[in-house]
Amino acid sequence: MTRRILHVDYSLCIGCETCEGVCDFIHGGRPNIKVYYTITGIPVPINCRHCEKAPCMDVCPAGAIYRDSDGAVIINPNKCIGCLMCLAACPFGVPTFDVKLKAVTKCDMCADRRRLGTAPACAEMCPAGAIFFGKPEEVEEKVRRRTAEKIARERLAAVNLEGVGRML
Amino acid sequence: MDEKLVPVVCPYCGVGCRLYIRSSDGHPLGIEYANDIPGISNENGKLCPKGNAVLEYVLARDRLKKPLKAKEQGKFVEISWSQAIKEVAERLKEYSKDDPNSMMFFGSAKTFNEPNYLIQKLARMLGTNNVDHCARLCHASTVSGLKAVFGAGAMTNTYRDIEEANVIFIIGHNFAETHPVGFRYVLKAKERGAKVIVADPRFTRTAWFADIYLQHYPGTDIALINGLIHVIIEERLYDEKFVRERCTGFDELAKTVEKFTPGYVEKITGVPADLIVQAARTFATGGKGVITWAMGITQHTHGHDNVRLLATLSAICGYQGREGCGVSPMRGQNNVQGACDLGVLPNVFPGYKAVSDPEGRKFFEEFWGTELSGEVGLTVIEAAHAIEKGKVRAYYVMGENPVISDANTNHVIKALHKLEFMVVQDIVPTPTMEFADIVLPAAAMLENEGSLTNTERRVQWSFQAINPPGEARPDWWIVSEIGKAAGFTGDGPKGFNYSGPEDILREVNACTPQYRGITPERLKANLAGIHWPCPSEDHPGTRVLYKERFLTSDGKAHLAAVEYRGPAETPDEDYPFLLTTVRYVGHYHTLTMTGRSRALVKRWPEPLAEIHPEDAERLGIKTGDWVKIVTRRGEYPIRAKVTRTVKKGVIAVPWHWGANVVTNDALDPVAKIPETKACACKVVKITEEEARELMKKVPPVIPEIEIVRG
Fold first, then answer.
1. Domain 4Fe-4S ferredoxin-type spans what residues (chain A) (predicted)?
2. What was the ipTM of the complex prediction?
3. What is the CA A50 to chain-centroid distance, rounded?
4. Contact B48 A161 (CB under 8 A)
């Protein structure tokens, strides 16, 4: 099992809603990633975190929720009874009830695209590069590198601007 | 089934993103991301929401499929192509014989270089320089302002230079929203440690990423920039060597900005004095600096001066002629730069040769084999005024929508009513089409091929991916047929005999020095395109302009000293608010394209007027309430959004849905651009019924046209 994670870096989001747009397209008009704006106007894209100890999976009375080989938490619509216990348990309020399907749906980390060897659409398309997809160590590496640069930058900025651009 | 991947250029903004259309026998199956082409402006094939929805407007149900002739206003009968072309050519020839200056031609920044070259050639061969396009409404000030200071009106650098800059000054430009994919270069620079300074009357998405944010009142840009220059000169932070060797007019500049102390500027702009000092210091000491701007700077009665000042600011800091530096006016359409380069402007021939200059005129007279007018023609807004005076009687509109896009819509509509003859060449019905006598159905961008020039002077070839619907034909074909029917049947450049866009581009190569080496063969082989100027076929293209000298007569940058002027109309007792227009990331200009895209309309369904909470409370307005924006020119119903992103006393309205009924058509004296970014208005709370009534008076962005039997 190769674990993959889908990580959103909120500090990079420009609120262009491209992620929501492509997800909407791929999932027939029901986007699984949605951009919400806080009262201060800052965009926060909310999607399934594919938790390691997924509360939805634990609480599902029908056993409809499982983890696939990449580590994505998936709902099997045939087993789902639509009790919405997963929504009650989810810390992010992610599961969505689909009236037509009579089942709960949510982000499946673009299972179809992963089967073809491509990344989830939102990660692939984000113009700001705010969505990371990959093995946990790869993603963590990128996030830490960014943080390191931020720390270095703040130290340099305290001295003067001359040194800027000479990093790395 | 013959399935193929066709590389095209996105038909929306000036970033010029590449993508593939997967098509089978001329039918689109979907889009694919161009993540395998190195060196394109959208790294890894990234697209914004509009780019992802490119296929939707092409497949719109109401695409024009047959040439139409008006029976009465707004009612059309179908006619054949030969009939349409014959009629247009004959009418144009009549006007040409009578008085060529009674015709006005509109090129389009939404179509390829080739038809744009042809339409200005047609206008000029018919004897008039009355040819213009929508750059007049967006970057006319940039073209004239940069030409005055540096000698040419184009971005001096590329996206890569934005990425390599140490300090990026974004003014009057909501970069993250207007060019989301291009904004990635700013984010990458910021990741590297670059400082971002944003000046905008609204706290925009771009401002979220600012290290220093300056919130000035709409229309006070001159004071703000003068204030920055004041601090830079006062603290001797400018590049003395660069100023000495490559600029003129510094002393006058220093004298003019003397009184623009941070304290004085604070009073005018509302930006705290210490922030101005901080921004000036940060910008001048960055070592490598880029200034980017867009409509917030240009769409003013002092747009020309705004641009000259920004160019001056960049020059005194020595941020010219080097990598990682420069000025980057961001173009709104994918081919504004190209349409300007190829002379779809009333004052210049292709390659920016002035029509009033006898030498340049002589070259084109010999090249096209006909006599040409040396009189500078009319601009878009001037033409609307000239109709009223009876001077202009015929319009040829290629891919433009002046009813929605021009300032002061009510005046434009009044003028169009008076026209004798109007041809509209477009892909879908627009409100402008209501006034047309002849409608020519054009193929959309993805349905034909040609070259496009993006905002960073990158010329790219876009291939045909889809078959046009019905009898719709490529723009270049339509214009060249009209040219031939009008009697211009000479050989080569002397006539309109072309077998394809390649022929036309070769003719452009021959007469436009900047494009000399940009041949169709080279463009087709190199998908990432070539940056002009490219003087010969073995030239790789130019990334940074002005490395050695500027293009002015003496080779130096002519620094501008400008006194402060506010907007043409300032708030008063009757109209106490300052209105500014904005746009949304998911919509595009007059909605002819995005308005037909279900995915985009779903996410951005309606405009919202932004109003400050204190103003809203005083007027008893809550988010979601209907209000009407009233100015001296008209009324516009819209729902309100109470937010702190705007300053007290400022109202921001998205213009896509026809908000130009209220904007001011006062013109910049040089650039002739209307001031759509600042005017006085009042806000009145209304009921939903009143709003519906008012809505009927605003031209519908997606009109329904009636086709009747002959």
1. 4-23, 37-70, 71-100
2. 0.81
3. 8
4. no
